[in-house]
Design brief:
Layout (H helix, E strand, L loop, with lengths): L2 E2 L9 E10 L2 E4 L1 E2 L13 E5 L2 E11 L2 E6 L14 E6 L1 H20 L3 E6 L4 E7 L6 H13 L4 E7 H6 L17 E7 L3 E4 L14 E8 L5 E7 L4
Parallel strand pairs: 1-4
Antiparallel strand pairs: 2-3, 2-8, 3-7, 5-6, 5-8, 6-7, 9-10, 10-15, 11-12, 12-13, 14-15
Helix pairs in contact: 1-2
């Protein structure tokens, strides 16, 4: 399986790795800095370079034998590196950093809204979180509280617990629709100092101040007890 370098350091922008599988679906490496789509966060994109050339990676997904680096449309596997070859992968860092900022912001929203998360999607321009709550929260008050937490610049760090420890503390999981990555025997916990603690496999910034100003968009009714909160970066602030 692919060693997931991004789990320990979300700020790694590139790495050298060895090809372990090549198929029409994509290329699998022995290690990568590319995050595979999951938990509401899109897969990374970027560039793979090798001895005979380079190819754009347009998506990253989980595969049966490791993390799949999906090639740009029209790329031929016949012109790709072979199993055992060494390659270098470079993230589209600007895009990744936007997703890191937004994903961290969504953790803050979770801390401010009392209710279970029924769904969510991290986006570059806009993100959303769905909550199992009976009434819409006050949009203005939520936005003010969210930006206050951002401006206070709370530090983030991660730690690990066992799957058994998580099972013994089910209240740590806020999301009803998505469970943290399992299978390795341990679960990564993301802590925002004095604000939030929950399991998460995604990528995050080092402190909330790095998120920048945001605003709450439309809050929608998506069912009897389902409220969708849209979150956007505030470009005018």
């Amino acid at each position: 399986m692919t060693e997931e370098l991004f789990r320990e350091d979300s700020y790694l922008k590139n790495c050298t790795a060895v090809v372990t599988a090549v198929s029409e679906e994509g290329i699998v490496l022995d290690k990568t800095v590319f995050y595979p789509s999951g938990g509401g966060q899109p897969g990374d994109s970027g560039l793979m370079t090798f001895l005979s050339g380079e190819v754009s990676i347009v998506d990253t997904r989980k595969g049966e034998n490791g993390i799949l680096h999906v090639l740009e449309e029209g790329a031929s596997v016949q012109n790709m590196p072979s199993v055992g070859d060494e390659v270098t992968v470079n993230l589209d860092w600007d895009r990744r950093h936007i997703l890191m900022r937004m994903h961290t912001c969504m953790h803050l929203v979770c801390a401010l809204v009392e209710g279970d998360v029924t769904g969510g999607q991290v986006g570059e321009a806009k993100s959303r979180l769905d909550f199992n709550i009976p009434e819409k929260p006050d949009k203005v008050a939520l936005g003010e509280a969210l930006n206050k937490l951002i401006n206070e610049d709370h530090a983030l760090n991660h730690s690990w617990i066992t799957e058994d420890e998580l099972d013994a503390n089910p209240d740590l999981v806020r999301t009803m629709s998505v469970q943290p990555p399992r299978g390795s025997g341990r679960i990564r916990m993301i802590k925002i100092a004095d604000v939030d603690l929950q399991p998460c496999g995604g990528t995050h910034v080092k402190s909330t101040g790095e998120i920048g100003p945001v605003r709450i968009g439309k809050i929608e009714n998506k069912g009897k007890q389902n409220r969708r909160i849209n979150i956007l970066f505030d470009e005018k602030a």
